[in-house]
Amino acid sequence: QVHLVESGGALVQPGGSLRLSCAASGFTFSNYNMNWLRQAPGKGLEWVSEINLHADRLYYAESVKGRFTISRDNAKNTLHLQMNSLKPEDTARYYCSMDRLGGARGQGTQVTVSS
């Protein structure tokens, strides 16, 4: 059974940084592309970033390109999202997922960007 557990969310000031992590279990992590999605208050689920199996293809939403970096450690079954230059509009609950639609995702971790 797929199990994804996100962590690392926090309250941070605009311009700050955070590193999110996702611990995966219940499937062969190294066989799947992985994604980060987010959901802001009152809004729908938004795809943020994707990384392929071997971490040599990275994809980002325009809203985060140049500020966020996705990575993975297949030996540790872990997915990361390094978020720099955070803005208030990045405030959301962040999820890791096996697809861009968030069909299989964890419980999420809350990121709040506010002064």
Question: Can you walk me through this structure?
Answer:
This protein has 115 residues and is mainly β. Helix content is 0%, strand content 47%. It is built from no helices and 10 strands. The chain has strands spanning 3-7, 11-12, 18-25, 34-39, 45-51, 58-60, 68-73, 78-83, 92-97, 109-113. A 6-stranded mixed beta sheet has the order 2-10-9-4-5-6, with no helix packed on it. The chain has a 4-stranded antiparallel beta sheet with strand order 1-3-8-7, with no helix packed on it. Strand 5 (45-51) and strand 6 (58-60) form a beta hairpin.
Write the layout of secondary structure elements.
Elements: E1 3-7, E2 11-12, E3 18-25, E4 34-39, E5 45-51, E6 58-60, E7 68-73, E8 78-83, E9 92-97, E10 109-113
SSE arrangement, N to C: EEEEEEEEEE
Shape: globular
Mean of all residue-level pLDDT scores: 96
Number of helices: 0
Helix content: under 10%
For the termini, the CA-CA separation is 40 Å
Q: What order do the strands of the largest sheet run in, or round the barrel if closed? A: 2-10-9-4-5-6
> What is the CA-based Rg, rounded?
13 Å
Question: How do you describe this structure in short?
Answer:
Helix content is 0%, strand content 47%.
Describe the structure using short key phrases:
115 residues; mainly beta; six-stranded mixed beta sheet; four-stranded antiparallel beta sheet; 10 strands; globular
